[in-house]
Amino acid sequence: MRNYKIGIIKGDGIGPEIVEEAIKVLDAVASKEGFNLEYNEYLLGGAAVDVFDNPCPDETIKGSLNSDAVLFGAIGGPKWESLPKEKRPESGLLKLRKSLGLFANIRPAIIFDELVNASSLKPEVIKGVDLTVVRELTGGIYFGEPRYKDDNKAYNTMIYTRDEIARIAKIAFEEAMKRKKKVTSVDKANVLEVSELWREVVEEVAKNYPEVELEHMYVDNAAMQLVRDPKQFDVILTGNIFGDILSDEASMIVGSIGLLPSASIGGKVGLFEPIHGSAPDIAGQGIANPIATILSAAMMLDFLNETSAAERIRNAIKEVLKEGYRTKDIAAFDAKEVVTTSEMGSLIADHAAN
Ligand SMILES: NC(=O)C1=CN([C@@H]2O[C@H](COP(=O)(O)OP(=O)(O)OC[C@H]3O[C@@H](n4cnc5c(N)ncnc54)[C@H](O)[C@@H]3O)[C@@H](O)[C@H]2O)C=CC1
Ligand SMILES: CC(C)CC(=O)C(=O)O
Ligand SMILES: [Mg+2]
Question: I need a labelling partner for 85 at 20 to 30 A (CA). Which of 75, 127, 194, 255 fits?
């Protein structure tokens, strides 16, 4: 029987609640499709600070590297906010991504027909949206040195090297080849030198993909165009901070941040995680939407070449939404019944097993 070692990182806040539901669904499809998943749990973020006084223990890095793939919830929360920078949960996540070499974060935003009324945008604007943000994940301003803060002055540095830009651009063009063959590279080249280099290198990489249409867009315009006419986009290629922001925006086109999954790739092992954070404001209430994490688990199965199991999960989600079940965040329209995090996970697992 096919056997996969899956690292599980639940994290903080709603992390444990949503990852539990994804495991439920993974177990349902694994037995149906005839493969075995062996789970090993590792700590990251606040949960790791509480036990090891370290937001990214070596054991988590080693364990992840020993896995075939890692499923991750989210980290962070007010409990750890006043710790020194290096002890904060967010530093732990950045360190894990860097240590695993995960330079590419793929964040698809695909509208479910059943949810066209759940978005605050008009149905005719969003029906059929199918875009993906390819975000550079281990460079840019989140990692650049020097960085500094005193009482009167603070700064960070946005750095990209030619090689870093070329490798993420290649991922975006490869993605576009599998899709609608259009790349929109988003930058701020009218102001930033780092964006000028970004454009030059993206143009060079584009020469290897003559079938793909390339356009450049400034990030402020991109933020506006995303809500004006999201269907104009296929692949959005961008840097770390712009991708972080634009993908949260894209989630609201689809209906909720609780719906957007992601795959962080580029190293030996992939990390699969919802795009949202640990949502401390709703943690422990049983109202978090687990679908982003369940879709991340489906992306994980795709990367493990268990594509039929991944499709089974996506179909199960569609069926459950078609039947009118909604978590609170997407309950505003068309809800037949508002369900808890755990009920939503069980409904999807039941459909996926049939
Ligand atoms: N990848 C990660 O682990 C990330 C961690 N964070 C951390 O998470 C903490 C909270 O950050 P926020 O800025 O509040 O962002 P957030 O994404 O956690 O929450 C933003 C808003 O969306 C809602 N939300 C998020 N996920 C949801 C879900 N699955 N279902 C329903 N509603 C959902 C929350 O309730 C909140 O109102 C911070 O410590 C932040 O640093 C933030 C983003 C990513
Ligand atoms: C919490 C940060 C480290 C990153 C973030 O917001 C994200 O990856 O979406
Ligand atoms: Mg973010």
Answer: 194
What is the extent of the structural domain holding 51?
1-108+256-354
- Give the number of the ligand closest to the Cα of residue 341: 1
The pTM (predicted TM-score) of the whole model is 0.97
CATH code for position 212:
3.40.718.10
CA of 99 to the centre of ligand 3 (A): 19
- What is the Å distance from ligand 3's center to 298 Cα? 20
Q: What distance in Å separates the CA atoms of residue 280 and residue 288, rounded to the nearest whole number? A: 10
Predicted complex ipTM exceeds 0.95:
yes
Alpha helical stretches, state H, 179-230: 193-206, 219-228
Q: Which of 114, 59, 68, 125 is nearest to 92 (CA)?
A: 59
Per-residue CA distances from 76 to 13, 118, 151 (Å):
7, 28, 25
Residue 118 DSSP one-character state? T
For 57-80, what is each residue's pLDDT tens digit? Answer: 999 999 999 999 999 999 999 999
